[in-house]
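Two proteins were folded this term; both appear here.
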Amino acid sequence: MLKNLRNYLITGIIILLPLIVTIYIVTNIFSAVDGVLRPVVELIIGRSIYGLGFMLTLGVILGVGAIGTNVLGKRLIDYGEKILTKIPLVRNIYLTVQQLINALFLKNKTAFRKVVMIEYPRKGIYQVGFLTSQGMGEIQSNTDEEVINIFIPTTPNPTSGMLILVPKEDVTYLDMTVEEGLKLIISGGTVVPEKGLINQ
């Protein structure tokens, strides 16, 4: 009974956390846009409009999204990023957040590709990790074997961890999805995918 309650609690947190973070971010964006633009618009039109802050925020988000999908907009964004990456403190924060979002939310070549299992830190002890890419460039040219880049996340915070370069033949590929792998790691092994369940 207690084990089930713990599983329900952890699963609930995993499900709700993205929603809570999204609400937090959107709320802060709304507050910022509403605080800056609403007084200006109300001054221009001469009266207060119910829901104006929400409409302005939605308009700004949609506008940025529309700009970011065309060639000229992408160039403007790239130019803005170049300026941000030249500011010492802002550069570190911006790049860290950008890489984290790309890794966790965007399904591109830099995202986690597959859930794998390796023997680490010694034979007989296994770690669950994520395949990020094949070994390339200088790293691959300085190794005798073909290596694969594996990210080993920490529990319960999968955004931190370490990168391990593992020989291709030493990697075991698992059937679970990346989402299932993240749940397994965040829960400390209490939330196991159906395929991974065994009778005890």
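Next, the second protein.
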Amino acid sequence: MSERPVDLTIKPVVSGAPRIVPVILSGGSGSRLWPISRGSYPKQFWPLLTDKTLLQETALRGEGAGLSAPIVVCNAEHRFIIAEQLREVGIHDARIVLEPVARNSAPAIAAAAFLVAETDPDAVLWVMAADAAITDAGALGQALQSAVSAANDGLFVTFGMKPTRPETGYGYIERGEEIANLAHVYRVAKFVEKPSAADAETLVADGRHLWNSGMFVAQAKTLLAETQAHEPQVYENVRRAVAERQTDLDFERLGAAGFGAAPDISVDYAIAERTQRAAVVPGDFGWSDIGSWDALWELSPKDDDGNATYGDVFLDRARNCYVRSDGIVATVAGVEDLIVVVTQDAVMVSHRDRAQDVKHMVSRLRAAGRKEALSHNRNYRPWGFYEGLIQGDRFQVKRIVVEPNQKLSLQKHFHRAEHWVVVEGTAIVTRDEEQHMVRENESIYLPLGCVHRLENPGKIPLTLIEVQSGPYLGEDDIVRIEDVYSRVQQG
């Protein structure tokens, strides 16, 4: 991958109280970056600009800046992916908070505010999405200093990005007058919905309008007071969900009844557009929500012909294209302004001007019942991953990789038998009342209905080929008897 020269961390922001708590929202699916980004493994978990994922880049911004450990609010399905990616970059003390159902950003932020307020209601929350890019950490640090000062005065602060082009995919903020005694902090005159192309031209030209970054800074007590004032149902139901939360391994699982009853509403509609405390800090630190393949092309290093490439790609007389392959070789010749993305199970081709329309194709795939709309061929689990190799009428072949010292659940199937062939590493296989050591180039048969478990006792990943046979081969044909990861469904 081409390296993007950027320091991911910001310099120390403030000293002394109150503390600053980064809150990372990781609930989106990023359908406009399909086929890389899908519900099972969305864009924040991919290394799109550097050798680190977007989630890792976001979490690292507070490292070394005197900030508290981050809170990550996420889909329960992604909890092990998030924990592992944070560990990979040395973040071991994050609080990972699990949403039982998706309820947009206002309930998620309220949950984080309640958790922080339990011990420090004066703490400042720095709320940001897990899937945005920032290229100038120094400028971000300066803007954050201004935002924190404003938040300590009881304001609800957002960052407004200086527009670089008429963009129809972003909302806008109209900047009002500068607030006395707060440098670089302005009143919000108005929030503007995503405009038409003509209106976007006008907004950019007048110099008063900024892109709405979706990042917010406010004290925990301010967030809770504004939520209670403008969305009392969010406040009461999330308060209940936090009070009824349970510890699940290293995760905090919000109460399902309370959180599920909270209105599905964004923080923009719930607070930002209603509050009398709204303020904006203008910024110019290379922010992008990477909301389309065209935006990723703009941020990526390019060759002399304006092409950005990733993976096994060959070009011939192509200009201003973005070509990415995470699977087979991709060749592109004699074209201009195209987006070409190749994965193991899908290919997407679009004109760069229509990059925002990829989500419409995802909707069509969903309507057609295609699994490619939501999940990848490779499926990650807390113990490793598996991926499909061959699919037949009554059989399928998978590759399974189990990380060192990890193990699958103790389980059985009603509709399929399995044959495991170890190709790398050593496996301990439980089959009913027996345990077997299975080494490289050895195999074991698991008849239909037997109780079994796979474990990697070694120091290197265990790789095996699994052949399933039977009348039904769905992942929901699992009766889980025991599981170290506290799961109740799937794999």
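The chain has three domains: 20-283, 293-367, 378-482. The first helix runs from residue 54 to 60. These notes refer to the second protein only.
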